[in-house]
Amino acid sequence: MPRHQTTTGTFTFASWDEQPVAGAEGGARIAHAAVVNGFTGGIESAATACEYTIAYTTEKTGAFTGYEFLDGSVDGRSGSFVIEQRGTFGEDGTISCAFTVLPGSGSGALAGLSGSGSFTAREGVPTVPYTFDYDLG
To answer: What pTM was computed for the model?
Structure first.
């Protein structure tokens, strides 16, 4: 029987490499970003691999989707899994994101992992708190 749990922690942007794909600087455009994060707290992962597609509607507003591969542990259980992320960002520098575990992506002691979480970040602040609600079958 799955066990529902909630865990929290922070992640820190280790690197962000954004490249334009289409559109005009300052207006509507699409970009791709390769990102590395480090997670601490309930999720421990020294260096993740994350790929975002970003749609700008103005210079400072838009939306993004992405996938992040986490290899480490969740509340002391070792393994890896993938999260799918969807979020928005606004004029005030607030970045809001909801994420879910990609079904079937858990390995090791995280096989059968499911769940979702969220974070709210501020532009220019490299460390971000997250909340993750999960079940481990």
So the answer is: 0.91
